[in-house]
């Protein structure tokens, strides 16, 4: 086995046992230099194995909300819920001729109910391919780097983004915490989501009930932007975000 991989695995096991440590402790235990330690920690953070905050390294125990699943596996989760949410969310398209469609797996099912003449922009290879297969006439992928696993585009082309504004954006989410903060597990995904949400007049988030009062690692909540959350939650939700409004699949809208 490659020595670098072996050391990485040992660091993971150590962090798994300790939960929270200082970077200096990693240096001393594994006899590493400061720069080498930093390199390992950056790599582990990119894999969502750890969080680094205020001079501490925290092992991520909550894999449910803090790890991106394979794109195909995510689509197979909670299918009936996602379809129900998609049916409700598609009504918000109204007269809009152009939409942004996020890489979230819930957005995948929105394609089943959209008019085929709608112009689609997306950062998802999977959703773009499905849109074409379903007969959509104008499908556009935002340029950037393809992220392995989710097949979403990150490190997006800012020259293009600076020249465009979307009337409505449909976004996926990994968790919405008690303060109404939208979160996702991976930093580049979070940056991409926040940029594209900020370039949209109206942001619509598709969230199964399991994602309410959950928190992942990175905040992608757009600033001073009206956000509609379409959910199948069966109870009225009140979170600490005055810009957040909930639409229920079995009821009407409520405002915080």
UniProtKB/TrEMBL annotation:
HTH deoR-type domain segment(s): 9-59
One Pfam family it belongs to: HTH_DeoR
Keywords: Transcription, Transcription regulation
GO molecular function: DNA-binding transcription factor activity
Domain of life: Bacteria
UniProt protein name: Transcriptional regulator DeoR family protein
Organism annotation: Malacoplasma penetrans (strain HF-2) (Mycoplasma penetrans)
Cell inner membrane among keywords: no
